[in-house]
């Protein structure tokens, strides 16, 4: 009898602990240096959040907490590399989460790419337009130049018509910093060879629930954190939201701050 009670207490404690980790994000900060000029900037304060999975459980309140956490960091630029919604946009629309996200304050703007859970039974353009109501520019296999640097956002790896990275980089200025938003952190070697300076990703959730991190660390060269190879930087976040139950054990919901210094 007492063994059963102890198991129930332990289970309840794990659920509380996992729920706290899921709904109470931490801020993780990385500092990197890029040997290029990004006039007029000699440094940038970038904030990244991914895998928000906005839906029934990661709802309007969770979005408001994310906006507050981002704005407290006073970013110059905000990047969201995929999985903003959780397989459908109904809750995103009904709770008007776009209105919450539009309150993010970043002088250089908010940019996103799409992930494997950014799905919609209708046209993809309708999904993109819904997200962009939150003052978020979705880069869907395209690049954009802003104030001395280039941002490239890729379609997700599961998209059959995803363009090769080489094609997206043919006509851009390689003398300026190149930032890549790619939801799934695969093919880091290709990004490095083609001259990407910073690649930001999510997707892995760092396994979300232990021992899932053992699996993700064997699948991905960089499943969480900062990896540098030469002048190339890969930063992967464990994600702001969660997939499935709102539990994180051995990981924690996070917002990532990237302090970039430019020099040549």
Features:
alpha/beta, 6-stranded mixed beta sheet, about 25% helix
Could you please describe the fold and organization of this structure?
It is a single chain. The protein has 264 residues and is an alpha/beta fold. Helices cover 27% and strands 24% of the residues. It has eight helices and twelve strands. The chain has helices at 2-23, 60-72, 90-94, 97-101, 124-132, 165-168, 188-193, 212-219; strands spanning 26-34, 43-48, 77-81, 110-113, 137-138, 142-146, 149-153, 178-181, 198-201, 225-229, 232-236, 254-262. A six-stranded mixed β-sheet has the order 1-12-2-3-4-5. Strands 6-7-8-9-11-10 form a six-stranded mixed β-sheet. Helix 2 links the parallel strand 2 and strand 3. The protein is globular, with a radius of gyration of 18 Å. The termini are far apart. The model has no long low-confidence stretch (mean pLDDT 95).
Secondary structure category = alpha/beta
Approximate helicity band: 25-40%
Low-confidence stretches: none
Integer average pLDDT: 95
Largest sheet: 6 strands, mixed
Report the span from N to C terminus: 69 Å
Question: What is the gyration radius calculated from CA atoms?
Answer: 18 Å
* Outline type: globular
Number of separate helices:
8
How big a fraction of the residues is strand? Answer: 15-25%
**Total E-strand runs:** 12
Largest sheet, order of strands side by side?
1-12-2-3-4-5
What is the H-and-E element order? HEEHEHHEHEEEHEHEHEEE
């Amino acid at each position: 009898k007492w063994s059963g009670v102890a198991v129930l207490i332990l289970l309840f404690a794990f659920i509380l602990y996992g729920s706290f980790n899921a709904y109470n994000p931490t801020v993780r900060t990385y500092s990197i240096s890029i040997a290029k000029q990004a006039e007029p900037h000699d440094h940038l304060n970038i904030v990244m959040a991914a895998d928000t999975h906005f839906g029934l459980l990661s709802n309007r309140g969770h979005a408001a907490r994310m906006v507050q956490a981002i704005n407290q960091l006073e970013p110059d630029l905000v990047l969201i590399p995929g999985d903003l919604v959780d397989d459908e946009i109904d809750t995103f629309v009904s709770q008007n989460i776009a209105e919450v996200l539009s309150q993010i304050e970043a002088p250089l703007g908010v940019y996103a790419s799409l992930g494997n859970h950014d799905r919609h039974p209708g046209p993809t353009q309708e999904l993109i337009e819904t997200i962009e109501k939150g003052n978020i520019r979705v880069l869907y296999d395209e690049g954009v130049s802003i104030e001395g640097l280039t941002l490239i956002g890729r379609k997700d790896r599961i998209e059959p018509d995803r363009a090769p990275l080489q094609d997206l980089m043919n006509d851009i200025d390689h003398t300026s910093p190149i930032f890549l938003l790619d939801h799934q952190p695969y093919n880091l070697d290709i990004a490095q060879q083609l001259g990407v300076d910073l690649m930001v990703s999510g997707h892995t959730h760092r396994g979300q629930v232990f021992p899932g991190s053992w699996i993700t660390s064997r699948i991905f060269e960089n499943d969480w954190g900062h990896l540098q190879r030469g002048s190339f930087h890969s930063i992967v976040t464990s994600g702001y939201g969660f997939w499935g139950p709102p539990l994180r054990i051995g990981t924690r919901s996070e917002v990532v701050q990237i302090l970039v210094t430019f020099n040549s």
